[in-house]
Amino acid sequence: MSDAALDLKLCLLRGETPSPLDLNSFAGADRIRLRTQTKSAVSDRLAVRLLTLMASGRLPPGARLPPERQIAETVSVSRVCVRTALERLKSAGYLRSIQGSGTRVSECYAGSSLDRLIAANSTNLHDLMEICGHLDSWALVRAMRHGASEPRDRLVALLTQPVSSAHFAEREADVRFALAEATQSEVFLWLMRHLSRGLERAQASPASETERALQVASHRLARALRHDDLPAASVALAERSAALLQCNFHGGSTPRRGVGDLLEGDALLAALTITQPDQLRARLVAEIGVLMSEAKLSDGAKLPSERQLADLFGVSRMSVREALGALKEQGLVRASARTGTHVWQAPLGESGQELRCIVQRSEANLMDVCALRHYLEAWSSRRAAACASVDDLSDMRRIIGEMRRPIPALRRKIDLDFRLHLTITRATGSAVALYITEVLRDVYSVYFDYTLTELFSPQRDSLLLEQHVEIVDAIMARDPDRAGRAMEAHCHIFRNLYGLLHDTEPPTAHALH
């Protein structure tokens, strides 16, 4: 898959263009940089919002856009910002200007920009449904064993209510969000908040037979939930997931739509509303605070230089200087022209990183991360065995080669482990899998650090290496089933460790097969 195609798919999922992950550096020698870099400009977000509407068919070929002035007033930005967004889309072939007729969506034909956009969106939605279905089995067991009754009742109501084709995808997003609430897992709920946005933007046109099969499976699942029958619920869920994968979630350039799906006038202007990017200085203050907490810098410890921080976060030295000034005003750091910037009062690890705070609140949340990772990594390994490029395989071999050498530094061992799993995710070619990694990047960092430093003894290094080698060998052999089994065996060791830690069985042990 070309970088341009992957970037297009990722921006549709994010709603903005920059990537917090450098996708090409996973196998490099330097430490992975997982901090978010500068947020996209408002014009970028507006451009991606228009792309999303075009990809879903709500702005079809030939549709006319409102005048620049109306868009600027609705979105509360300058006309220059709107013009910048529109010009970018025109130069990329998505829009065209017609004398006397304004700006319109370009025609869609084989090989056109709009055709590639629709194909990218269709692939995203298929992967999204497949991965969500994969995670549903974990969520169902968790909801029925440890969940609350109120969100389960809400889920039953959603499964049994009739729904029109125009609101089909929106209902699916609601179903998954209700299932996430029923699990009472803060980590899973956080993840589904992000993934559900993709479903809400989808258009769906299930065939009559598929719609009937989905309705039957949904009612069976609701009945099993009412009677607290986990085996029956698991069977019904599998049937429902299979039916969903047969649905056409905008899988082509001319999907079937209801009349109410197309956007015009005020409805179109309302759909163009975008969120303003966070102020860069405020974000840098939070990121540097996390860096201080992560590194466990004691009072008086010296921070990296402005140049080093600017390089780490991908911003200018002036932006770093402003952020350090804000930290100084808060009494967290002190600066000296002679000795540099030092920690004055180390912040807690809650510096605006909501998901990181969720995970640090309890080890039960880390157990959820471990279980979710089990499902996601197994899916990624199977997909990587089928889709990995020659460069991906070369990167995996390089990482395994370094793992075979003696590594005295624990930090380097953790980085290599993390890097290998990221490289496998990249090898899937799936923008959805990479997007999940972006969403969970902070929690993965906490999980790897805690698990490999607190739970996993150095005496087991040879076992880890043996398992990593087996996973990579299976991927290189292009054997998806073997790769999936090898990854499941690898992740199951960690789930067992968390189970022993809490003197209980891991919450999803029976949902694996």
Shape type: globular
- Average pLDDT score: 78
- Radius of gyration (CA) equals 24 Å
Q: Helix tally?
A: 22
Could you state the CATH homologous superfamily of the largest domain?
A: GntR ligand-binding domain-like
Helix-strand pattern, N to C? HHHHEEHHHHHHHHHHEEHHHHHHHH
**Helix fraction by DSSP (H/I, runs of at least 4):** 55-70%
What is the spatial order of strands in the main beta sheet? Answer: 1-2
Biggest sheet descriptor: 2 strands, antiparallel
Return the structural class: mainly alpha
The CATH architecture of the largest domain would be: Up-down Bundle
Report on this structure.
The structure is a single chain. With 513 residues, the chain is mainly alpha-helical. The chain has 4 domains: 3-112, Winged helix-like DNA-binding domain superfamily/Winged helix DNA-binding domain (Arc Repressor Mutant, subunit A), CATH 1.10.10; 119-245, Up-down Bundle (Four Helix Bundle (Hemerythrin (Met), subunit A)); 280-343, Arc Repressor Mutant, subunit A; 360-511, Four Helix Bundle (Hemerythrin (Met), subunit A). It has 22 helices and 4 strands. The protein has helices spanning 3-14, 42-55, 68-75, 79-91, 113-146, 149-160, 168-183, 186-200, 208-226, 230-245, 265-271, 280-294, 306-313, 317-329, 354-361, 363-387, 390-404, 410-427, 431-439, 441-455, 461-476, 480-501; strands at residues 95-98, 102-105, 333-336, 340-343. The strands form 2 sheets. It has a two-stranded antiparallel sheet. A hairpin with a 3-residue loop joins β3 (333-336) and β4. α3 packs across α4 (79-91) and α16 (363-387) crosses α18. Mean pLDDT is 78; it is low at 26-39, 251-260, 348-352 and 504-513. Pfam families: FCD, GntR. Keywords: DNA-binding, Transcription, Transcription regulation. Residues 40-108, 278-346 form the HTH gntR-type domain. It comes from Xanthobacter autotrophicus (strain ATCC BAA-1158 / Py2). InterPro entries: GntR_C (IPR011711), TF_FadR/GntR_C (IPR008920), Tscrpt_reg_HTH_GntR (IPR000524), WH-like_DNA-bd_sf (IPR036388), WH_DNA-bd_sf (IPR036390).
